[in-house]
Amino acid sequence: MDEFDFVVIGAGPAGEAAAHEARRRGASVAVVERDLFGGSCPFWACMPSKTLLHEAAVHACGGGHDWAAASARRDWMISREGIPYPDDAGHVRALEEAGAVAVRGSGRLAGPGRVEVRGPGGARRELGARDVILAVGSEPRIPGIPGLADAEPWTNREGTSLRELPHSIVCLGGGPVGVELCQVYARYGVATTLVQSNERLIPREHPRSSEFVRRGLERDGVVIRTGVRTERVRPAAGPAGEHALDLSDGSTVVAERILAATGRTPNLAGLGLETVGVALDERGNLHPDEALRVADHLYAVGDPAGPDLQTHLADYEGQLAVRVALGDDVLPHLRAIPRAIFTDPETGSVGLLEAEARARGFDPLERTSDLGTSAKGYVSDAEGHVTVVADRRTRRLLGAFLAGPGAGEAIHLAVLGIRADLPIDVLADTITAFPTTSRALGVLLAEVARQL
Predict the structure, then answer these.
(1) DSSP-derived 3-state class of residue 107
(2) Three-state SS for 14?
(3) What global pTM score does this model have?
(4) If DSSP codes are grouped into helix, strand and coil, which group holds residue 202?
(5) CA-closest candidate to residue 259, choices 154, 151, 185
(6) What distance lies between CA 24 and its chain's CA centroid?
(7) pLDDT in tens, the chain (452 residues)
(8) Fewest CB atoms within 10 Å of the CB: 275, 403, 422, 451?
(9) Strand, helix or coil at 41?
């Protein structure tokens, strides 16, 4: 049995971050990965989707970048030029140059401090570790709608890696994946329908952000059906052999392809958790403690740990787990996790909505401003909003929600304010560049400070 200080199961953003932090600290580490080193983000999720969004935005403005060019640039981005499956050699090389041992195969726990790996061809290898980190990521959740499986729905993998556009597509789910990919398809001329059971898109975000994103998608030609569910799929039952989706309001939608964007499930099955006395809850989830520990010398990071499914959070937790295991006096700070959706308009958010703040015992004050009538809105001919939530008693920022140009960048003024627990007066006294979305946020924070 090969012995290491750390064995990391999973080489996505969380696992890579853990491995690099361990090596920076002089600890030995093996990283086990059953598919692509690098995980979903660089190959099937964040990087290809944002690349396609950029290409579609240029195309929509008349700047060329037709689908052939967009598809080729995406293939370059995910290291899949001229080959059927992405090449992860760069990620392996980076780990090995840092001194980590990259192990291909499926890893599972085989008792405390032991990981069994089944490699290519069924070869078995046993690894020992003082600490084991579970960085196994998640997989798309396919809803159990009658007939859906027979229609062979796409997930984000097919949705971001397609080389030929369909004539029509229906997306199930109006979260970040659904709204981003629908905008890409629509801007390239695909007849696109989005079906969302919630009454609004991106329901975790502020209602104003939801409305601005909806308007942006409808401007680009997306047909949006909110407040309805897909009750049945009839494969190839449309007039031209498309799939027919029967909705809860009695209507039917037909499309050549179906994209399932209805959430993700942590990859926790078959990990051997029972060998270390760990059981999943009734929904199949883990519940690490405040130090990301699920048992002695066993940590969970990234998607299985939560509370959000975000690449930047996974990276942060991977590093923190190693620091905790090596004895640093640190705990993850999870109150200021930024979110960004890269549609047009873009959104950025952090912290609590007004109703959430009130439910947690705060005395919230919410104020908003129209980004469209700010200097940024005027010079960029854009619309959007800036909304903040502050606590009257403590004069602290609780949440911020933006929609408009650069929202994903501008939100970090609020992220730092919440992370550092800064008084609202300090944020109001911070100079922000003109004319930017950050400036619009700073002006609103100054107004809120006066009202408090």
Answers:
(1) strand
(2) helix
(3) 0.96
(4) coil
(5) 154
(6) 27
(7) 899 999 999 999 999 999 999 999 999 999 999 999 999 999 999 999 999 999 999 999 999 999 999 999 999 999 999 999 999 999 999 999 999 999 999 999 999 999 999 998 889 999 999 999 999 999 999 999 999 999 999 999 999 999 999 999 999 999 999 999 999 999 999 999 999 999 999 999 999 999 999 999 999 999 999 999 999 999 999 999 999 999 999 999 999 999 999 999 999 999 999 999 999 999 889 999 999 999 999 999 999 999 999 999 999 999 999 999 999 999 999 999 999 999 999 999 999 999 999 999 999 999 999 999 999 999 999 999 999 999 999 999 999 999 999 999 999 999 999 999 999 999 999 999 999 999 999 999 999 999 99
(8) 451
(9) helix
d(CA 171, CA 394): 43
Task: Identify whether the C-beta of residue 349 lies closer than 8 Å to the C-beta of residue 411.
Answer: yes
Alpha carbons 172 and 196: distance in angstroms, whole number: 6
Q: Give the DSSP letter of residue 143.
A: P
Report which of 238, 283, 243, 279 is spatially closest to residue 260, judged by C-alpha positions: 243
User: How far is Cα 97 from Cα 36, in angstroms, rounded to an integer?
Assistant: 18
Provide the β-strand partners of residue 128.
3, 114
H or E element at residue 340: strand 339-341
Angle value at C-alpha 118, between 113 and 124, nearest 5 degrees: 80
Residue 414's nearest CA partner among 424, 405, 406, 404 is 424
**Residues 6+ away with beta carbon under 8 Å from 315:** 13, 14, 16, 17
Q: Which helix (H) or strand (E) holds 389?
A: strand 385-391
Angle at 39 between CA 1 and CA 413, to 5 degrees: 120
Three-state secondary structure call for residue 382: coil
Pairing of strands 347-351, 396-403: antiparallel
Residue of 33, 102, 46, 34 lying closest to 77 (CA atoms): 46
For 287, half-sphere exposure in the C-beta direction (CA atoms, 13 angstrom radius) is 6
What would the two tokens of residue 53 be?
A: 């969004």
Q: How far apart are CA 221 and CA 373, in angstroms?
A: 25
- Provide the token pair at 191: 């007849």
Q: Which amino acid is at 59?
A: H
CB atoms within 10 A of CB 432: 18
Look at the block and give the residue holding tokens 């627990």.
421
Rounded distance between C-alpha atoms, residue 75 and residue 99, angstroms: 29
Complete DSSP assignment for 281-303: -TTS-----TTSEEETTEEE-ST
Closest by Cα among 329, 325, 305, 335 to 317: 305
